[in-house]
Amino acid sequence: MIQVLHGNFLYTPSLGTLETVPDGYLVLQDGRTVGIFSELPERFSDAERTDFKNALILPAFTDLHLHAPQYPMLGMGMDLPLLDWLERYTFRTEARFGDPDYARRIYRELAQKLIENGTTRVAMFSSLHTDATLILMEELENAGVSGYVGKVSMDRNSPDYYTESTEQSKRETLRWLKECERFRTVRPILTPRFTPSCSDGLMRWLGDVAREYDLPVQSHLSENHSEIAWVKELAPSCERYWETYARAGLWKPKTLMAHCVYSDEIERKAMRDYGVTAIHCADSNINIASGTAPVRQMLEEGVHVALGSDIAGGAQINMLEVMQMTIRASKFKRMESGWKTDFLSVAEAFYLGTTAGSSYFGAKPGFGEGEPLHAVVIEEGRLPDADRLTLRERFERAVYLSKPQDIVAVYAEGKRVK
Amino acid sequence: MIQVLHGNFLYTPSLGTLETVPDGYLVLQDGRTVGIFSELPERFSDAERTDFKNALILPAFTDLHLHAPQYPMLGMGMDLPLLDWLERYTFRTEARFGDPDYARRIYRELAQKLIENGTTRVAMFSSLHTDATLILMEELENAGVSGYVGKVSMDRNSPDYYTESTEQSKRETLRWLKECERFRTVRPILTPRFTPSCSDGLMRWLGDVAREYDLPVQSHLSENHSEIAWVKELAPSCERYWETYARAGLWKPKTLMAHCVYSDEIERKAMRDYGVTAIHCADSNINIASGTAPVRQMLEEGVHVALGSDIAGGAQINMLEVMQMTIRASKFKRMESGWKTDFLSVAEAFYLGTTAGSSYFGAKPGFGEGEPLHAVVIEEGRLPDADRLTLRERFERAVYLSKPQDIVAVYAEGKRVK
Fold this sequence. Notes:
Chain A is built from 14 helices and 17 strands. Chain A is of the alpha/beta class. Chain A has two domains: about 1-60 and about 365-415, Urease, subunit C, domain 1 (Roll); about 60-355, Metal-dependent hydrolases (TIM Barrel), CATH 3.20.20.140.
């Protein structure tokens, strides 16, 4: 089946570049992009056409670090110190997902919210509950969100009401992986919560499973000072935090590491050399006052960086807001460095939240030929004076001012899902 | 006429305190607050009742620094250095308000947008055009926004297409003040753009007018390093920036000074001693990478501080978003200080955007007895799990997550305007 979408296409093929195809035509065959054309080739003139007129059509957003079971606590507890926040909110909220009915209700809402906001690909932490994790994967797949979901592993330094024994953790992980076979677009990712919550034995076992099942891995790295000190205490033989993952066989291509605020030159080099992706979570780093990650530096050194909302440390599920916050954090980094470090431009932040994220899933930049379409369509009817602006200005303004209701259509895996 | 509003009332009587009246009744007589009651007194039982059920009812928001003629450029040019931003966007955009039809269209939209977002009191810069300024004041008054609006004065260091001679500036200011007599709730405020754009003669003349007409004053102060250096060059006899206003007679109670990012101890003391209010514009300071204002310090020293959106240096017209950004900026200040300076809590930021702002207009904290009601009503239907939360948690989440469509009602000057 051939379909044609008409509108203004914009995408960022590489860091800092913005390509535009004004008044263009995107041709889809069975949901896969054939190409974008400034004039519609004659051979497609009879195809079914969806006319988005003067709207902006952009690649859909990728969110490579968020905690699904923290969705109910979004925007709360922001005044608390990290440990109180974990105790009073995070663990208690996550523990509730032992109840499958609660999980079903919240995860259905979350999946819908992601689509409404134009996020079509994710790498997500679930809770430690196998059943809730499977429910989450189902709900995502039904709503049209694809990517990776991980049952969280945590067998130490966790509250009594929210922990698992090493044996339990292994057994449940295997049960979960077995059950995952039924999913098509949402796949499992191994998810040790972070070094302090996983025993050395569990970590090594996860490394074996990662190799045996050829699974990707996600965790947290060098988010704040006290965490780093704690890791050092727990793993005195490791010079740096990343080594605690590496010695267990978890440091490899397709490993995602959230935060990397305090990753120094050597840790950053280890990321680059092993093909580990750093997930920058600007809003969370600000809200929890963790620090400002050296994103510009990582990019210059060739580290692969993508963005995460990190709900509920982050209070924003909308990736355009996360991109904005990424720009703002980079401006703080600039000020902090005495105006020496360049901030991230709008196009650069957009690249990190689209192209850089989707490349993790193997996608080409922009609207890749032969690939299932992931796109959002934005109408800015609410905003003043749109007729006088260039496409680039409208793009910039869309990043700063769009609200979910301005996203009038979303395509994921080649299908319209909003 | 007696009216009763029912809902959950929250307000911040002082910095850091949050008062709640759950399931309460606010009684209005001719739009003025009689009181808030946990149980409705018998004598009001027959009054017209508006039942907002389980919604949150909060004081409406105050925005004490924004540039009305920059509204069309909201969210654009954020990648440009300050001078390019001024040249390519700001001056050109403001200059268009020489056209009264354009002014009418944009200002009507802006006034409506403010009300939609729950902002009912403002101190606002217009452009240098007298007629457009009067149109702005009309549109605000019609929409239900009250406060102060200033025709901008600028007779030097401005582009040819957007400047005025000293004589012109004086003449137009007097014409404007004369025309202002017809307004009731929107009043004039003298508005030298900032020291670099006003000749010494014009500044002194404005000082005389301020005294003679008993008018308040607003301007910019110590926003960034290059501006401060420029002021020093233009006024070598002044030790500090504030003195350029003081020597002209513009430094006095009811003077508003936007930014104060680099105001040192002595400048801050001058603010406190003279009763000058510092308007903190967090989003703008971040976007333009000006710096992080010492808000906590100013508050501790007894400087009166309120908030401004500073559109279009700020990209957010919604004051809840401005409060959030105020919190985030304070967390950067905390990190910048090696975690020594306390950040601003949600209740503190809310205080700055409501009580502190409305006190500038002479209002009592919260829902002051005998005063015309300024309030917003927020319904959080979109958010998960509201039934399990305390009122304080719902308040916190409302600050972080509310969107304009969640503001289901707005009262200004005692009347329902949304």
